[in-house]
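Example (one chain per record):
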Amino acid sequence: MLLIVTNVIFLVKMVTKPDILAQLQKEILDMQGLRVPLESERRDTGLGIINQAFPNQTFPVSAVHEFLSHSKDEAAATTGFISGLLGTLMCKGSCLWISRQRTVFPVALKAFGVRPDQVIFVQATNTKDALWIIEEGLKCGSLAAVISEIPELTFTESRRLQLAVEKSHVTGFIHRNVKGPAGNVACVSRWSIRPLPSMETGIPGVGIPAWNVELSKIRNGKPGQWQVYWTETGFEIATKKAPALPIAIKKVS
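Predicted structure:
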């Protein structure tokens, strides 16, 4: 009997405080729909050090992300950044792109590693129809992602979308072009993408896209702000905030 008690005490001592905290954090993430992704589900989005802001240090898939824009310039920049993320998720399958108006030029998606024939474009006549299509798309496990452009989204509506992806493991991107402050939603993250002067490449013409990327909310993560560029090899990030950003950049590792 004494031997059994001694063994129990020894096992209890082996469970350290960090182990307990890690287990509690895992359980909380599971309850919030942010489970640790399986190796087969992990995707290298090329965001490098930005991944440190996410729980599990990897871009949350099987989740719904919210992007806010307040102008046409911001909306265009946001579409480009989402396309860059989408290109890393489209290794197999197709995606659904839902909008009220046709604002995306399909051929331009090739620059972000997305084949236009992998994208199913849907034009909704109103927000109600768009939300129904989004939810049904997020329930379809054969899709890699669902992208939607809608101006309005309530907490209840966003909660239904998040519940849908927890079963299907589809990744959702909600792009909202709003005029004023945006209310709280159940999405796991909130992003704001603003355009920066494009980086010169030494070739006459338009330089490569550049964005100020702000992650203002991330569930169980660390919000932050970065200056990011898009090149032929993917995302690149500025090493420090300075006026001469096009010079002070390095490849994201």
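Caption: The longest helix spans residues 72-89.
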